[in-house]
């Protein structure tokens, strides 16, 4: 099964509109007249989405993502943004269940599942993040944690939803730490996650779904990680804040 790799830049709480414009100008000048055998996604903060849409709206090589959405449609939820509102920015993707949302903002598997279903109601494609902490890995709980995150987080998705969903496996201990999972550790976890999707949705869907790796991906380690058979791209934080570094990851990691 050939799966097109997908490289997504998660800027987290970095880059307001003016820095977004600077990045876009730099990145666009580097990718013009080039084609890539991969999908490229950029996820700026909410307040920079309008500027990103202005710069990338007509660029077919680049899709935009939000970093979160509400599990509600509208109402008295101060500070929240609904999937329906995001859709107006011509976004294609939304990152859901990132470990920072889980750990810092207390998002549960059930909340994340509700957000996944809201995103799908308006045809946003979830980049659904899962991954274990170091304590969980060292305590022998890797498989138990991934099983729980997948079975609850992806509950009630249809086969069509699944085709539009990307899973991002991000071991929490590798995020922003400079410590990357070895290619072998990452491949083992990805193969296990794919087997979980097969159990829940069938072998055909499991063979089609793209599973990104995230956690200290850099231009120098992208090729080795992406060479693994079950790794279909990357979700990149720090190294995607600079146009050349993001581009180098895409080029080095495209297989
Ligand atoms: O969403 C991206 C991940 O949290 C990875 O972040 P990082 O590349 O800075 O380790």
Quick description:
The chain has 255 residues and is α/β, with parallel strands linked by helices. It has helices at 17-31, 49-56, 83-87, 99-105, 109-121, 134-138, 142-153, 159-163, 183-201, 203-208, 222-226, 243-253, and strands at residues 6-10, 39-43, 62-66, 93-96, 125-130, 166-169, 210-214, 233-236.
Structure description:
GO terms for molecular function: triose-phosphate isomerase activity. Involved in the gluconeogenesis. Catalyzes stereospecifically the conversion of dihydroxyacetone phosphate (DHAP) to D-glyceraldehyde-3-phosphate (G3P). The chain is of the alpha/beta class. The chain has one domain: Aldolase class I (TIM Barrel), CATH 3.20.20. It has 12 helices and 8 strands. Strands 1-2-3-4-5-6-7-8 form an 8-stranded parallel β-barrel, surrounded by 5 helices. Strand 7, helix 11 and strand 8 (233-236) form a beta-alpha-beta unit. Helix 7 (142-153) crosses helix 9. 45% of the residues are buried. The model has no long low-confidence stretch (mean pLDDT 96). The protein binds glyceraldehyde-3-phosphate (G3H). The site of glyceraldehyde-3-phosphate has 14 residues, from strand 8.
State the CATH topology. Answer: TIM Barrel
**Helix content estimate:** 40-55%
Model regions low in confidence, pLDDT < 50 over at least 5 residues: none
State the secondary-structure class.
Answer: alpha/beta
CATH superfamily: Aldolase class I
The CA-CA distance between the termini, in Å, is: 13 Å
Total strands: 8
Family: Belongs to the triosephosphate isomerase family.
Protein name: Triosephosphate isomerase
Subcellular location: Cytoplasm
Pfam family, one: TIM
């Amino acid at each position: 099964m050939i799966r097109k790799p997908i490289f997504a830049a998660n800027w987290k709480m970095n880059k307001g509109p003016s820095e977004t414009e600077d990045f876009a100008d730099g990145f666009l000048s580097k990718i013009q007249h080039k084609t890539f055998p991969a999908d490229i996604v950029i996820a700026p903060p909410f307040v920079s989405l309008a500027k990103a849409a202005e710069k990338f709206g007509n660029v077919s090589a680049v899709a935009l993502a939000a970093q979160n959405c509400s599990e509600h449609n509208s109402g008295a939820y101060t500070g929240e943004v609904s999937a329906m509102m995001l859709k107006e920015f011509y976004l294609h993707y939304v990152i859901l269940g990132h470990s920072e949302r889980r750990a810092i903002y207390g998002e549960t598997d059930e909340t994340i599942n509700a957000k996944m279903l809201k995103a799908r109601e308006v045809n946003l494609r979830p980049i659904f993040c899962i991954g274990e902490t170091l304590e969980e890995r060292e305590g022998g709980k890797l498989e138990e944690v991934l099983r729980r995150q997948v079975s609850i987080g992806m509950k009630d998705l249809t086969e069509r939803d699944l085709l539009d969903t990307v899973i991002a496996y991000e071991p929490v201990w590798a995020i922003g730490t400079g410590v990357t999972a070895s290619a072998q550790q990452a491949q083992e976890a990805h193969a296990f996650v794919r087997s979980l999707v097969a159990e829940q949705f069938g072998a055909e869907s499991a063979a089609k779904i793209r599973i990104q790796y995230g956690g200290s991906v850099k231009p120098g380690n992208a090729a080795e990680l992406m060479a693994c058979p079950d790794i279909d791209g990357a979700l990149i934080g720090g190294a995607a804040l600079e146009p050349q570094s993001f581009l180098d990851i895409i080029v080095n990691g495209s297989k």
